[in-house]
Structures are given as structure tokens and as C-alpha cells.
Design goal:
homodimer, alpha/beta, Arc Repressor Mutant, subunit A, Nucleotidyltransferase, domain 5, five-stranded mixed sheet, about 20% strand, DNA-binding
DNA sequence: AACCTTGAGTTCACTTCTTGAACATGCGAG
DNA sequence: CTCGCATGTTCAAGAAGTGAACTCAAGGTT
């Protein structure tokens, strides 16, 4: 009776069966709504085996087969049972809160954003998230008990294992908060946490520009700079849980002071908050990253220059990443990425210039396709991939 | 007839069988010379299965059972067949050639090094390796047909998949050579190639300082600078096959010209060849890395300073690596590492200083324990782990 | 000395799984 | 309208793991 999740003794036939069930579920997850034949091809299993496993998992309520409305044969799409549960993604940005609800078939069924004060406490933020989530759930006729898990995105370094935020987070009200536990207590459902860059990477690799790539890097350039590293199809967190902090590699020993306590970090040359500082003499106070991008796109010379330089510096850092990890694809996201080629061109140029030739030759620097939804969608994907109903 | 090594399609029964064969072999390796009952207990497999697998592998010549000399029943110790096959590791350094022979029990049974001219052609080098290998084989009473595979270590970037050397190799006579194929033709046995840093990483993780670590980095500082990155227990090569080129991350846009064509690469600040350049005014021509280390250890002030500075610069680069990958362990090897704390202290200090605090806090910078044998042993491990008879 | 206990390794019947082949089904192209 | 063809299902055969029964030998017990 399809008891996935439970693990049989390793090496036994039933463990093989379970492994193959996981393979099938993973294939469905990866492909969205494949046919059984697709699954057979992508997993390498025989059609017969796939047929058996799909029947079992359908009986167990894990998968559903949609009889191709047309009524006939020719492709019965298999997908994860939507009624089996919902996933909630919550993204805390530096000035906004965004919540999305999706089902196991990876369809986003509801999504909403609202502004949130940077200085808000963790309690305030979670309270707002709670209300937003409940509101969205009621619009889709569901309740909290339908929620399999909640993915939480926070800016700044976080240990995904313990769920504790580092001190250098962008949200001062959150420093040192054991975010995962706190959210679990308030929301009453399993919570998974990760930082914004890792979630962006997860989203882009699941739905976006890096789809189908087992190895890739996602660079988020917004107010700060961070990276999500995808290795073997999964976001790599590293032994310490905070991998991907590309924003704080040193470009210049004697450079500007960074909020992390070092000097000359990449972030101080490419992060939106530092660009605002740079542009203060010409543009005054209150310049946001979004505004800088807008001005740059409309031809404002200082802003164009600032964005271009940010791209060059970011490219130098990415070149280092390319030397170390030799990826085929680097996806660029975050607010500053909305400047398009104003940012990407100098960035790609810097990579070609600074990376070792064998690394520069194979890497493509492309913009993310999910925009400011990347983080919420990643939070959603976090639930769908990390605590899947059965996987 | 026990065709281990060849991998069946994942998910199939035969793949399960292979996995269980590996389990048994691993158990034997871990325990030394266990009985079948011991194996059954430690693997969780049934005694019947163990019996079958042991019979197969014995017939295949991989395992041997010693009939407890006493003649009777009661514990037939199982061990890896020493004669089942040998692995050969070959390491081409910038000035030497080193060959080691090991058996499936991971014991090194013969090892020898000889000087080799830097300018030697690939054909010369392979010829010398051939003679050295044959000589060593005869000393252990074996022939080439006993060799299961040959691991080849070369300095410089190499695509492990295609086996072609990049142009920036340290050995000019090898540039563009399709090393794996060339060696296979000459030596007539399966050949696996990788670069020196990756092999050092593999060796340290298999036998040395990083043993038991699934994630770690190995930095080789010798004439050049390179890294081997271990992720999930395996050396990570990246999509392009040349990951780990830490020697060519840019520390200074306007720094010294590097042989890779860029300027201010880490290698130009920490690589032995550049230190020799730096010390030319005080010490004249012909300074080797080994000599610099020796002088530094014996108190020569310029050399101490040069080594210390190299450590600081290397540490800055390693800090970037720590920010990106957040490892718990960084092993330092290569000729310059023989300077011990003269190099490691400033290096660790630079990491503490330049890496983000969460990354600096958890990382240990330790010296490798395999010295200049690291690469050969890694080449040996390459054979034992990548195409192991069955392992 | 004869006997019993105990654990090791093997054999056998049984069950679980995967798989290739054969088969039914229905959409598209010609 | 028919044929080709890919899809999904069923079936029998083969591969593999497992518990139980069995053989075997050492070592202690009576």
C-alpha cells in the first residue's frame, strides 16, 4: 500500500522499490506533468515498472493522472496530487512581504505582496505573513490543515539546518532570531527556511532560466549581493550552511567599509545601498535600487555609470566563482538586474576578462526570468522539494 | 560472472546487486578480514545474500576466503584478494615523475620517483612512466595484465571527461595533448586522468587529513596554485571539468602579469615561481620552491617574508572560497606547505580577517599529511574509486 | 569418551521486483 | 478512412533477497 517515506532496510528489494518510487516522484516533480512514457525515459526505468509504480502511488493518493480531457489515449499526464496538500511560500524582502500558495503539481494558486517596513520586528513580520497567508488560503477555499509546509525566505545569512539568522541580516529586527522555530510556533505547520539568494537559485532552477541545469549559480544583486549555488540539481549550503556569500568576497583590501565588518567587499561596489551612497552627491538622499535602475534605463548618465560599474565589479567576483566552480550557467537576478544589459554587458565582459579562459569560454551569463517573484517561488519550491509528501 | 565496475542502469535489480557487492566489499575493507556472519551483521544483508555475493566475488577473483588454517569450520575470514588486480598511479610534477602501485586493499606495494625535465615532451614523459611502471611491476612480480587501471596526474587544467589538457598547463610539452587517450595507447590499460590539485584532494580525503569529510577543499601551493574541491565525498569537477582554479582568481586588477594572460592572479602572489622572481634581487637565479622553503625554515628573512606574504594572499583567496562554499576543512598541500606555520599562520589569519564571520568561524585550515606523495596516491585512489574493480 | 550446545556457512523454496514482449487504444498524417 | 505510431497495460520470465532448514565443526558438559 505504497508506504513511501518509510525506509526499508538498505539493500533489500523493497528499498529498491522505494528508491524507484522516489525516482518517479522526482521525475514528476522535475518535469511538472509528464506522461508515463516521459517518466520512463527520464528515469531509465521500463514502462512496465513506471506503470506499476504510478498505479500504486495513485492509489495511495500521492499522484493523480489527468485523462487528457480529450478523453482518449495519447498522454495521460501524471502530476502530484493537488488535493494532497498545499505549500506556502513566504518571502521577507527588505521592504516587502510576499506570500504565494501552490499545490504539489507546482501550480501557483494564489499570490500576493504587501509593503513591509524595514525596521519591523520579527513578530510584526510574522504576524503580517500569518494574516496574508490565512487570507490567501480562504480565497482558495483551504485552511491551514491543508498546508504541508511553509517555506520562508529571509535576506541575509541563515543556517538552513538550525534556522537561525546571522547578525549581518538586512532586517535588523530579525538578527539572532531562530526564525524557523519562531515561524513554526506561530503558524503551526512545518517550516523550512533559506536565504533569498538560495531561494532565487532554487526558483530559477525549478521554473526559470536554469531549468534543466544540474549545476548553475544564481547571483542576486539588489540592496545587497548574494549567490545561490546549485550543484547536482540541489542548492548547495555547505557544511556550515551559509554557502554562497559572494557579496563578501574581498575585491580591495583597502576598499569601503562593509556592513559585514570587512573592507572592499564585492557588495560595497555592487550592492544597491552602496550605489545610493555613491550617487548621493548628484541625486540626493532616498535613492532606492529600483529608482537607480529606472533612472539608468531612462538615460541618466551617473546612474548608468553606477550600474555599469556595479556590473563590472560583480563580474570580477563572478569570474572568481567561475574559476572555482566552472559553471555553464550564471543567472543574474535581484532588483539591479532589471537594468538588463546595462548591468549584464559589463558583467559578462568582466567575466570574460578576469576568469581563466577555460572557465570563461563555457559560461553563459543570463538574466533571471522570474523577477521579484523569484524568492517567493523559491520558498514554495523549498517546500515542494525538501519535505515533499512522500519523497 | 560478477561484472562489477560496469554500472547497470539505475533502478534495476542488477544495480541493486552491484550496490550490495559494493556494500560487501566496503565492509571487508572496513573490517579487515571479517567472517561472512560479520559482513551480514554490518551490512544488514541476510547471510544467504552475503554467501552468494562472497561466492561470486571469490570466483571473480576479487575476494579470497582463508579457510581458518585450523582446517575446520568456524569462521572463514574474508579479505580482498591482493592478487586480484593492481592499480597504478602516475604523477607528473613540474620537475619529477612519480609512480606508485597499490592493490585493491588500498595498500601501496611499490612506489618510486625520478626527476624529469620540465621541458620534456609528452612522449618522453610517458615513456619514462612506462619504464618506471614496468620496473615496479616486476619488483612485485606482476605484469601489465595485472593492472586494472592507471591514474594519471598532470599539472594544469584538464577536462577529466575528455582528458585533454588546457593550454595553461605547467608542462609546455603537454599542451593540447589528449593525455588520457595517449596514455591508454601507450600503456594499454584503462587510464583515468585528473589534475594535481584534484588528486591531492582525493588523496587527502581518502587517506589523509580530510578523511571522513564529505565536503572539504584542498589547496595546493607549489610552483603554481590550485584547488581540489570535495563535495559530497567526491571531487567536484564542475560542468566544464576544470573547477578548482583558485590560482587564477583576481586579487588585484593591476597586479603582475600571470601566465594565464590575466593580471594579479592569486598565483602571481603565492605561486613558487613568482616568489622566486620576487627573491631574485636578494637570492639570484635558480631559486626553487623547495629551496625557498628550506631557507625560510632556517631563518632567512626575505624568504620568511615571501612565504608569509604568500600565505596571506593565499588566505585572501581561500577566504573567498570559504564565503562561497563554507567548508569546515581546508587542507593545504604543495611544496610551499612544507614551510608549515610560516605559511599556514598568515593564511589562517587572512581567512579569519577576510572571510565573512559565519564562514571564518567554522573553518579549520590544516596542513596535508601526505606531503609530496599526495598526487600519486590520489592517482591511485582515482583508479580504486572511479573504476574500481568493484568498489 | 559420548553428547550437547552454539554459531558458521550453504541450500532451497518462496516472495518481491524489474523487464521485454505482446496487446489494446486512440490520435495524426497521408 | 486507413495506417502508422506512440501510449499505457498485462503477462510471463528472469533476477535477487530472505527465512527456514540443514550440515558442519569447535568447545564445553556429563
Amino acid at each position: 500500500m505504497s508506504t513511501p517515506g518509510s525506509s526499508a532496510t538498505p539493500g533489500s528489494q523493497s528499498s529498491l522499490r522505494e528508491a524507484n518510487q522516489r525516482r518517479v516522484i522526482q521525475a514528476v516533480r522535475d518535469a511538472g506533468a509528464p506522461t508515463q512514457a516521459d517518466i520512463a525515459r527520464s528515469t531509465g526505468l521500463s514502462r512496465a515498472t513506471v506503470s506499476n509504480i504510478v498505479r500504486e502511488l495513485s492509489a495511495g493518493g500521492v499522484l493523480v493522472t489527468t485523462p487528457t480531457s480529450a478523453g482518449g489515449r495519447r498522454a495521460r499526464a501524471v502530476s502530484l496530487a493537488p488535493a494532497a496538500g498545499l505549500a506556502v511560500g513566504v518571502d521577507f524582502g527588505h521592504s516587502h512581504l510576499r506570500v504565494a500558495i501552490g499545490n504539489l503539481a507546482r501550480e501557483v494558486v494564489a499570490e500576493q505582496a504587501m509593503p513591509l517596513d524595514v525596521g519591523a520586528s520579527a513578530a510584526d513580520g510574522l504576524g503580517a505573513a500569518e494574516r496574508l497567508m490565512d487570507g490567501l488560503l480562504s480565497t482558495v477555499g483551504a485552511t491551514r490543515t491543508d498546508v504541508l509546509g511553509i517555506g520562508l525566505g529571509v535576506p541575509g545569512p541563515i543556517d538552513a539546518a538550525s534556522g537561525t539568522l546571522g547578525s549581518s541580516t538586512i532586517l535588523p529586527g530579525w538578527a539572532g532570531i531562530e526564525a524557523a522555530g519562531e515561524a513554526r510556533r506561530r503558524l503551526g505547520r512545518p517550516v523550512h527556511v533559506d536565504n533569498d539568494a538560495n531561494l532565487g537559485a532554487l526558483a530559477e532552477v525549478t521554473w526559470g532560466a536554469a531549468r534543466g541545469h544540474a549545476d548553475a549559480a544564481y547571483i542576486k544583486i539588489g540592496s545587497g549581493v548574494g549567490a545561490g549555488i546549485v550543484i547536482g540539481g540541489r542548492v548547495y549550503h555547505g557544511p556550515g550552511g551559509t554557502a554562497g556569500e559572494i557579496g563578501h568576497i574581498t575585491l580591495n583590501e583597502n576598499g569601503p567599509m562593509c556592513r559585514c565588518g570587512n573592507r572592499g567587499c564585492l557588495e560595497t561596489y555592487a550592492g544597491g545601498r552602496y550605489l545610493a551612497e555613491l550617487l548621493r552627491p548628484t541625486h540626493g538622499d532616498g535613492l532606492t535600487t529600483a529608482r537607480i535602475v529606472k533612472l539608468a534605463l531612462s538615460g541618466d548618465a551617473p546612474c548608468r555609470r553606477a550600474v555599469g560599474d556595479a556590473g563590472r565589479y560583480a563580474g570580477t567576483g563572478v569570474a572568481g566563482l567561475c574559476n572555482l566552480l566552472n559553471p555553464r550557467l550564471v543567472v543574474v537576478g535581484g532588483d539591479l538586474a532589471r537594468a538588463g544589459n546595462l548591468l549584464l554587458e559589463p558583467m559578462a565582459e568582466a567575466v570574460r576578462r578576469s576568469a581563466i579562459s577555460s572557465a570563461a569560454a563555457i559560461v553563459s551569463i543570463v538574466p533571471g526570468v522570474l523577477g521579484d517573484r523569484a524568492e517567493v517561488l523559491g520558498a514554495l519550491a523549498l517546500v515542494l522539494t525538501s519535505s515533499p509528501s512522500p519523497a
